[in-house]
Amino acid sequence: MDTKKAPEGAERRDKDTNYSTTYRVLQIFLSGQKCTAHGLNIAVGFNDARKAISLLRAKGYPIIDKRLIDMRKVYYLPDNWEAIMESATKCKQLDLFGNGD
User: Topology of domain 16-93, per CATH?
Assistant: First the structure.
């Protein structure tokens, strides 16, 4: 059985696609919209909005999710998201355990 090697740069294209999708999801949130994962998938033309949300949360964006009565989740950035990110950055910079003195 012959196995073909993936074309050079195939992994990079996948990473670029993830970046592009994540960026488009971020732009939707920055515009103030509240969306379900399904709505984001339709808007972005991708099938894994929850992965993009997870990546954005890992970067420090305080994306909130609220469960609706029909069990779907609505995702959005709070109005004061910039202040939240700034304070989180300051907390990471603090030496919470001291330097042993």
Answer: Arc Repressor Mutant, subunit A (1.10.10)
Judge whether 64 and 78 are in contact, CB under 8 Å.
yes
**Could you say which DSSP state residue 70 is in?**
T
Nearest Cα neighbor of 61 from 45, 73, 78, 43 is 78
Backbone angles phi, psi at 66, to 5 degrees: -125, 135
Query: CB under 8 Å to 24, separation ≥6 — which residues?
Result: 43, 44
Domain coordinates of the chain in residue numbers? 16-93
Helix, strand, coil percent content, the chain, rounded in steps of 5: 50, 10, 40
| pLDDT reported for residue 34 | 92
Question: What are the pLDDT digits (tens) for 29-49?
Answer: 888 899 999 999 999 888 888
Phi first, then psi: give them for residue 8, nearest 5 degrees.
-60, 130
C-alpha to C-alpha distance for 57 and 12, rounded to whole angstroms? 22
Residues 49, 64: Cα–Cα separation, whole Å: 14
